Amino acid sequence: MTFRTLLGSAMVLGAFHSARAQQADTTLIRYSGQLAGQYSAGGVNRTLFSTTHSLTLLRGLHFGAPVTGSFLFGKQERLLKEREWLFNTTPYYWKGRFRFYGIGGYERSNLRGIDNRFQLGLGPGWAFYSDSLGREVAVSNLFIREATYFQGGTERLVSRSSTRLKVVYSYRVFSLNATTLYQPNLANAADYRATQLTSLALRFSPRFAITGTYTYTFESRVLEGKPTDNTNVTLGVAFSTK
Known about the structure:
This protein has 2 helices and 13 strands. By secondary structure, it is mainly β. Strands 1, 2, 3, 4, 5, 6, 7, 8, 9, 10, 11, 12 and 13 form a 13-stranded antiparallel beta sheet that branches. A hairpin with a 5-residue loop joins strand 7 (114-130) and strand 8. The longest helix has 7 residues, at 3-9. It starts with a helix and ends with a strand.
């Protein structure tokens, strides 16, 4: 999973809490959406806009299937830098502290020179802590097969290990979502991606919240002239159904 995958899946663990409240033969559909942006002028002129939308189907007590789409657009000094698209689904099964995930994804990235990227994967996870409020500390490790087609005609087909540490915490009207991701190429450990995503939300109604998000991404192997890392800090609003 890349950062954009994580951004689309950041609210998935909240679905576990809703699933706990379900009966064994019920189906629940949840929607969440987020708009965020950044603007700066003076020494550096920058404009950044991002939006993420997630639809999650929960079936019974143990199954969920989130489908997510996200778009990010950014300019620096009036020049287009970021135009990022992501679509993915991350179905899961959970029982007690055990989780099992699958992933299927598609991505385009002007920032990293990616015309098309396809991902398929699966793997287990384990929650070291979870409670009835949806707070959780969990680790997962997925095996991912990835095909990337770069601008200019080059392409790569690699297998990756994707290790994720997820922390979800809430207290009254505040909630914290933090994800750390490390994804080495199984054939070459020096070829890897690393991601940190931290989001803090202040909920002012059952459905709406103000959000602040910090993201850092690093990819060791990119096209010549493209940056290996990227940092974004954004402020926005989020909406979700119960």
